[in-house]
Amino acid sequence: MKPESARSRCARKPFLASLLVVSAVALAACTDTDALKNLVQLKELSPDAAVSVAGLPFDAGVPLTIRGRVTTLLFAKPGASGAMVVHTTAGPGKYVFSTAPTPDLARQGFSRFTLKPGEAVIVTGVLAEHGQQIEGLAAARADTIATADGRRVFDRTALPAGRH
Question: Between 14-29 and 33-41, two packed helices, what is the crossing angle to 10 degrees?
């Protein structure tokens, strides 16, 4: 019997397959050494942590706008929100943003090909209450995500009612 390949094992697990594809694409396109180290380790943010950031309470009184570079995108299993890790030189330096469920991201045209590792982004949102962190990253909710040239790739207000 022929041993099962990693690719065929991943095909049976769509969430894992998405994570691996994003990471593989990231590795192939990455020129930022720090981002590359984070992707190679694949330990910057666990899938469980990505799911837990969406469940945190957020403080609307602590708005945030950061400019940084994307290092990790996690697309969630059905029913859970995805996450994005952004590194910046200001503030805590590393943020994990809750985004939206994968189907809602797709409706806005956001996919694993929308942003490349190391790409500059501008993210607006709010911090988690009491400055909570997830795995050493400042937790926040992304309300908008735009590329450095201002092209908006995610807008929370465009989500279906009840998912804001």
Answer: 150
Domain 6-158: CATH class, spelled out: mainly beta
Q: Are 56 and 144 in contact (CB under 8 A)?
A: no
Q: 52-69 in b/e burial notation, b at 16+ Cβ within 10 A?
A: bbbebebbeeeebebebb
pLDDT digits 0-9 by tens, 69-120: 999 888 877 777 889 999 997 777 899 999 998 899 999 999 989 998 899 9
> Among candidates 163, 86, 162, which has minimal Cα distance to 119?
86
Integer CA distances (angstroms), 33 to 10, 21, 71, 118, 136, in order: 27, 19, 11, 9, 20
Best CA proximity match to 22, nearest among 12, 10, 33, 34: 10
Q: Cα separations (Å) of 17 from 21, 54, 56, 75, 77?
A: 6, 21, 26, 10, 11
CB 99 within 8 A of CB 155: no
Domains of the chain, by residue range, sit at 6-158
Does the predicted model carry a pTM greater than 0.90? no
* Tokens linked to 99: 């985004």
Q: Tell me what pLDDT residue 130 has.
A: 92
